[in-house]
Write a structure and sequence with these properties.
The chain contains 5 helices and no strands. By secondary structure, it is mostly helical. It has one domain.
Length: 89
Amino acid sequence: MRCAIADGLVQSALGRHSEAARVLEDACRSARDGGLAQLELEARLELARAELRVGVEAGRARLQALLQEARLRGAGGIARGADRLLRTT
């Protein structure tokens, strides 16, 4: 799963935004289906970051939802990352 997230980050850095989104969405789905909550939150954070990088407004809404969910689940690192992104974009 971490490899899929890393692949999404690489695709985004290379400017392959639609491929990055596809890979990260797949990672979110796989993590959720596998009951890997922390990895799902990480994939969602990176997907939102990739979307914001190219101006996809849905990234902001995704971050706000992620921030609330991460706080509820006690995932402080993810919550801080989402909050930081929301403040800087």
